Amino acid sequence: MQTRQLENPFLEKLGAILHAWREGEVEIQLPIDPSLLNRTGKVHGGVICTLLDAACGYAGLYTPAGADPLQGVTLSLTTNFLDSGGGAMLTAKGFLERRGRKVYFARAEVWLDDVLLAATAIGTFRYIRPGAGAT
């Protein structure tokens, strides 16, 4: 798998790292720190949803190094929270399920310390031209 920059200011501000990326698959890691926790001391659900959305999205946007980048927007995302716990690292794994000319479908998982499956998602995404709106 190829390693590159996320080129996403929001994910980078969170501290997310594009760990691995290749055609149809992506792995994004996020070290857990206290700023990502909710009142119960568990990782906030919004953080997990963000990782699921990013992993699904990036799974359908891979291009080889040096090629023009692809961009897309989320049309729908269905999430399932399965478990929670403490740990040091969240890992989101995204997988491209099917690609059309304008729309693609992907699924993702978020793992806590590569041991506990915390959440899953399926999503529908639309390709956009760089600089174009989502309409």
Walk me through this protein's architecture.
The chain has 135 residues and is of the alpha+beta class. It has helices at 9-14, 45-59, and strands at 17-22, 25-31, 71-81, 89-99, 103-112, 116-128. Strands 1-2-4-5-6-3 form a six-stranded antiparallel beta sheet. The N and C termini lie far apart (32 Å).
Number of domains: 1
Shape-level CATH architecture? Roll
Helix content: 10-25%
Structural class: alpha+beta
The tally of helices reads 2
Percent of sequence in beta strands: 35-45%
* H/E element order: HEEHEEEE
Distance between the termini: 32 Å
Number of E-type strands: 6
Overall average pLDDT: 93
Specify the biggest β-sheet: 6 strands, antiparallel
Protein name: PaaI family thioesterase
Keywords: Hydrolase
GO molecular function: fatty acyl-CoA hydrolase activity
Family: Belongs to the thioesterase PaaI family.
Q: Care to give the gist of this entry?
A:
By secondary structure, the chain is an alpha+beta fold. Helix content is 16%, strand content 43%.
Sequence-ordered SSE layout with sheet pairings:
Layout: H1 9-14, E1 17-22, E2 25-31, H2 45-59, E3 71-81, E4 89-99, E5 103-112, E6 116-128
Antiparallel strand pairs: 1-2, 2-4, 3-6, 4-5, 5-6
